[in-house]
From TrEMBL:
PANTHER family named among the record's database cross-references: SERINE / THREONINE RACEMASE FAMILY MEMBER, SERINE RACEMASE
Domain Tryptophan synthase beta chain-like PALP: 15-302
Gene Ontology MF term list: ATP binding; L-serine ammonia-lyase activity; magnesium ion binding; pyridoxal phosphate binding; serine racemase activity; threonine racemase activity
Pfam families: PALP
Name the UniProt record assigns to this protein: Threonine dehydratase
UniProt source species: Salinimicrobium catena
Family assignment from sequence similarity: Belongs to the serine/threonine dehydratase family.
Length: 312
């Protein structure tokens, strides 16, 4: 496992390429939850999500000769944008495989950040096959959106910043999709917190991480019928052991709870957040007794919302 010093070094390395995002509070949401909530607003991160951190760290960690040949990833959204922008900031070519069904707004954003898009049919084998072809043609290095240690360590820096500002947090709650954010957060809480627990939030409709912790092996989702489109992916063999060791529990939430929490954040905090981000608040409101009277950090994972498809 990475040391505290090495994780701190990751934070220092990526600082020139990321924003130290604000931490906001809401008296009303504190009253509703019975806890003291501190929202780490990664919706204000460059490209609108925490994934900029992991992408920057992964590319910075490549040797010069590999950087020159570029990086490739497959993603339908935020990680595609993160890799494109991080690569552009570092003068590195970025090849992005996107499913043909990805929203046009996300494709446009990737192009705007300088990513070279290859479209493919919307299945994981097709995405992997397209990425493999690009690697063979260009010599580019593959960067996985969540199952890559450099990505995981980069994602953990959001929680480092949160704990620098609020060192007495007792719990940090994050959404769980591919597992990169929660694994990185758990490492940061373990090293930089004072007995600070990490809790995950996940939709019932895509609860592979909850089931994986129950069974002790990586489970797949039979269905992913959730509004939280960023949480449809599954855990990987690099982040799962960290999650098993350092994550206290995962709380599952209903779709109507995600929508209600998202609406609350929009209305009460005036923050544009995507449904995936709202799962963390939904989990706290669902199980208030667990968090009552505690200082709780929430990672607001991103704010890249398709405004044509708001759920309220």
């Amino acid at each position: 496992m990475i040391s505290k010093q090495d994780l701190q070094a990751v934070h220092e390395r990526i600082k020139p390429y990321i924003h130290n995002t604000p931490v906001l509070t809401s008296r009303l949401l504190n009253e509703m939850s019975g806890a003291e909530l501190f929202f780490k607003c990664e919706n204000f991160q460059r490209m609108g999500a925490f994934k900029m951190r992991g992408a920057a760290n992964a590319i910075l960690n490549l040797p010069k000769e590999k950087q020159e040949k570029g990086v490739v990833t497959h993603s339908s959204g935020n990680f595609a944008q993160a890799v494109s922008l991080a690569a552009k900031s570092l003068g590195v070519p970025a090849y992005i495989v996107m499913p043909s069904t990805a929203p046009q707004v996300k494709k446009d954003a990737v192009k705007g950040y300088g990513g070279k898009i290859t479209e493919c049919p919307p299945t994981l084998p097709e995405r992997e096959k397209a990425a493999q072809k690009i690697m063979e043609r260009t010599g580019a290095t593959f960067v996985h959106p969540s199952n890559d240690l450099d990505v995981i360590y980069g994602q953990g820096t959001a929680a480092i910043e949160l704990l620098e500002e609020q060192p007495d947090l007792e719990v940090v709650v994050t959404p769980v999709g591919g597992g990169g954010l929660i694994a990185g957060t758990a490492l940061a809480a373990n090293y930089f917190g004072k007995n600070c627990k990490t809790v995950g939030a996940e939709p019932f409709e895509a609860d592979d991480a909850w089931r994986s912790l129950q069974s002790g092996k990586i489970e797949e989702n039979a269905t992913t019928n959730t509004i939280a489109d960023g949480l449809k992916t599954q855990l990987g063999e690099k982040n799962f052991p960290i999650i098993q060791k350092l994550v206290s529990e995962i709380i599952r939430v209903e779709e109507n709870e995600i929508i209600a929490a998202m609406k609350l954040i929009w209305e009460r905090m005036k923050l544009v957040v995507e449904p995936s981000s709202a799962t963390a608040l939904a989990a706290i409101l669902r199980q208030k007794e667990k968090f009552k009277g505690k200082k709780v950090g929430i990672i607001i994972s991103g704010g890249n919302v398709d405004l044509q498809k708001l759920p309220f």
